[in-house]
Amino acid sequence: MSARIDRRGLLVGGAAALAGWSLAGGARAARRETAPAASEDSARAEPARTLLLLEISGGNDGLSTVVPFEDPAYRAARTRTAIAREQVLRIDAARGLHPHLAGLHGLYGEGRLAIVEGVGYPRPNLSHFTSQDVWHTGRAEGRASGEGWIGRTLRARHPSDVARARAVHVGAVLPYSMTSSTHPIVHLETPSAYRWVNEGPAIAAAAELPPEGAGREVRDLRALIRDARSSSTAIRRAVGLYRPRVEYPDHPLAAELRIAAALLQGGIGLEVVSVTHTGYDTHDNQRVRHDALLRELDESLCAFFADLRGTPAGNRLAVLVFSEFGRRVADNASQGTDHGTAGPVFVLGDAVRGGIHGRACSLVELAAGDLVHTTDFRSVYASVLEGWLGTPAEDVLGARFPLLSLFA
After folding, report:
1. What pTM was estimated for this model as a whole?
2. What is 29-196+243-397's CATH number, 3.40.50.300, 3.40.720.10, 2.40.30.20, 3.40.640.10?
3. 373 and which of 248, 301, 342, 384 could share a cystine (Cβ 3.0–4.6 Å)?
């Protein structure tokens, strides 16, 4: 094996593969009221603020999530999938949340849920993959522009500390937002067969490099591998010993959010945790499928918030809930909705300035049957970066965008 091994390949693929593992059996352990104390080798300074990314993947129907129940154009366009006025959980005289979002409705009433209306981007693309790439990079060019926006955020925040793992994705597929050319990002998989992946291809390749003394590149790579293994051990310990303060519902999303809670309370210095809720491509039978998905989202997310509420980890957390696009205004003959453009984004947390932000899309002034976005999603990112994480948004997004007052 040549001593020339790509550092970028190790950071993007090797560290993730090294830390890839699953934990479905951890929920069987007995409860405990507090998170475990971090051991000496895993204890790290906790960041002042943290971010949980929750992607609802497949294109969430925003008009069935935040329902414009008093708009006659909504009733005219949704002849098969409209939500009855009396079922809507009202947030003002014209809008309300889906009836299965009772928990989030409660958080809205407490001022801990911000709803950003009409979020999208110019020249929208209705391909799941292309639109996700735009959202995941924060740039119109998608993957052609380079790494993900979280990878850029880590580089902007920690330009000289490139070994420590500060971001984790929990779930089967690592989103492109969580890729970095400079910083390791840990990927925890949760398949039904539990296993610990000891070596990824890049790690195995590094193991075949010449002994110590072969040069700075080799020493740097081995130091990175040691740090990745140390981080992985600390992460496994944090999740394995965690005892939630509430009972999580029996949903796949809830299981991943339970792991997210363990990571955020684990004393291991994480700044970003990511999870994905899939299945929102509701071309048919939407009232059954979408209703079930929103119930799972609501119950899982509210259990997560109840678990963290009043803890230091909960106090320093903000949650960003987004989807790659919305659905078309009119429903289809299959009692579903097809790929659309804009939709709402949720931001949750104790320090969030709750309420409605941005402006609702018109249901009559459309672009070929689709909503015309009123808020660029990068304004949401910029507001989270600057208003919550204290990171210059232009360093991450490559341009400036109007800021929203999402945080108190």
Report:
1. 0.84
2. 3.40.720.10
3. 342
